[in-house]
Structures are given as C-alpha cells and as structure tokens.
Amino acid sequence: MATWRKPAVSVLLSVYNGERYLPAAIESILAQTFADFELIAIDDGSTDSSATILSGYAAADPRVRVLSHQERWGLTRSLNQGLSEAEGELVARQDADDLSLPTRLARQVACVAASQQPLLVATGSEKIDAGGQVTSRHPLTAPSVLLRWQLLFNNQFCHSSVLFSRKAVAELGGYDETTAYAQDFELWSRLTRLGGLVAIPDVLVQWRQHPHNITAHHQETQEQVVNRVVARSVREVVGNSISDSEAATLRLAVRRKQLDVTNDLLAVAVLLNRFCLRICDRWALQPHERKLIQLECGQTLQHIASTLARSRRNEALRVLRMSVATAPPLWSRRTTYSCAARVLLG
C-alpha cells in the first residue's frame, strides 16, 4: 500500500461565480511540469456552475481538494481557510480567471531550493483580455532587492504569480481579514519586511483583465487600502506620523509621477530619506544591495527636488542635499552644480 506524504506545494484557488474561466485556470495548474502539489479550490458560495466544475475535477484528480461555502465569505477569508487546510510547506496562488504557464511551479520551487530560503518568489506576468489575447507584458527585470524596496510602496506582483512560505505567512496571521481589497499587497508589505524575496524575470503567469474582475470595479478602494498600508509601514519603521494623503504622494514620487507642489513635499522627502536609511539597516544588506536602494532613493529625491524647484527653491535645495548625502554615486561635482543651478534658476 502506498504511503501518503505531504505535497511540496499547496495551490490556493478561490472562486465566486467564475464558471467561464475556471476550467482553464484549473487545467493550467494540473498541466504543471512540477507535479508534487495539491490544489485547494474554494467555492465561495457560487450560484453558477462553479461548484459542479470543481467537483468534476476533484473526482478525476486526487490532487484537487474542494472546500465549499453556502454563503459568500469573500476572498480574504476564503484564502485564510485555504491556508489553514494547506499541507505544503510552500503555497502558490492562482486566481480563477488567470493562467499559469506549464513551468511556473517548477521554476519557483527550484528558486527556493537554490536560494537562502526566500519568503516569497514571484514571476513576471502578462495581461490578457477576456478572449485570452495578450495586451501587455510585465517581466520582473529589476534586481530582487530593488523589487523588495519598491514593494513597500506599490504592488509589483500579480497575485497569481506568487509562491510563499506557508510557515512565515501563518506566523504573521495570514491575510488581514479587515482588508477586502489589495489583501495581497497588504500581506507582501508585512512579509518582505521579515525576509528576502526572489524574482523570476520571465513571464510565467497570464493575468486576465475583464469587466467582472475585482480590479475593474474597485480600483479606487484598492488605492485607498494601499495608501493606508504604506502609511503604516512608514510609521512602524520611522516612528513619524504620516497621513494617507502623504503616503499617496510618497507612492507617486517613488514611481516618478507628477507631484502636486501644493503638498508638503519637503516633509515627504524627509520621511522617505529616513525610511530608506532605516530599512537598509534593518535588512542587513550586502554593500551592493544597500547601494542599489540608496541610488533608487536618491533618484526619487531628485524628482521631488525638481518639482519643488518651480516655486520653492530653498526647499528644493534641501532635498538635493539629502540626495547627495544618501546616494553619493549619483553626484559628480558637475552633476551637483548643474542640478543646483537648475533649482536656483527655476
């Protein structure tokens, strides 16, 4: 008689009325070249044929386990239920309308084995429309330490592209059930402050955008959640009070987006600079990793200074001085004089 053993990976899939795309999503997992997994599929009170579809796959493949709700729980609570049932040491996410390419799990598991136990492994992704046509590609080309830094401000990953440590997430309490939207970013912001991540640059997941998915209907609410999460992260690391609106400005600055000069950009710059230095110390980075983050921060400070130069030159010069101190490699004498001249001359 065969001896049962735990799977290496638990794949979590929650569905609510997803009959149109659900079979393709499940097939993309069952077709993985890495076969040592269980698929925990959660029917979150669907009123269409999703439950029947799940039952059919569970009957045909013992790796598929189905959990069912009579009433809708919501994605966050459903994922936590899946986490509590998971047997694998590693957990992968799969949305019911997305697709995983065949080598996704194999590549991610290999990354875990080859690295120093990263808490999270993400892959590049591409957006597809309702009909499956590719509309844009998003490879993860930045170094992992920079992605870890950027993930403190903005979500860099498609939820379906992530594999993480079950134990680490369980110790954090799982997904935050007070967060109905952007629950993935909220969790990653806590998880990546504890340990490193690995990014596979290649596209291994297709993220479907269509009129009925969460992103299409709740973009504004998701942005509000992300602002609150960023404000919380800054407060916990720096100790300073920061409003959600300041967090929103900080996020725009990090992405080099247009800034409103009527906001207190100097205060945002001071917070960013202090946050950068504290994070570099907390993460115990290698010298080259620290340099990458400081260069990134210095460039963001330059962007803030350029905005301030239009009307608040003294503040712009203060921010430039921060950039020089934080990221000296950015600044040759010629560059420093050139930037200062632009500020002084408006």
Summary of the model, kept short:
This protein has 346 residues and is α/β, with parallel strands linked by helices. Helix content is 49%, strand content 16%.
Outline, from the CA principal axes? elongated
In total, the number of domains comes to: 2
Question: What's the CATH topology label of the largest domain?
Answer: Spore Coat Polysaccharide Biosynthesis Protein SpsA, Chain A
What is the rounded distance between the termini? 80 Å
Instruction: Give the helix/strand class.
Output: alpha/beta
**pLDDT below 50 for ≥5 consecutive residues: which ranges?**
none
What would CATH call the homologous superfamily of the largest domain?
Spore Coat Polysaccharide Biosynthesis Protein SpsA, Chain A
Can you tell me the CATH class of the largest domain? Alpha Beta
Major beta-sheet overview = 9 strands, mixed
Q: What is the succession of H and E elements?
A: EHEHEHEEHEEHEHHEHHHHHHH
Mean pLDDT over all positions: 91
Can you walk through the features of this model?
There is one protein chain. With 346 residues, the chain is α/β, with parallel strands linked by helices. Helices cover 49% and strands 16% of the residues. It has helices spanning 22-30, 50-60, 75-85, 104-114, 144-150, 166-171, 183-194, 214-217, 219-238, 244-254, 265-282, 287-308, 313-326, 333-345; strands at 9-15, 37-44, 64-69, 90-93, 99-100, 120-128, 134-138, 163-165, 197-208. Strands 1, 2, 3, 4, 5, 6, 7, 8 and 9 form a nine-stranded mixed β-sheet that branches. Strand 2 (37-44), helix 2 and strand 3 (64-69) form a beta-alpha-beta unit. The longest helix is centred in the C-terminal third of the chain and has 22 residues, at 287-308. The radius of gyration is 22 Å and the shape is elongated. The model has no long low-confidence stretch (mean pLDDT 91).
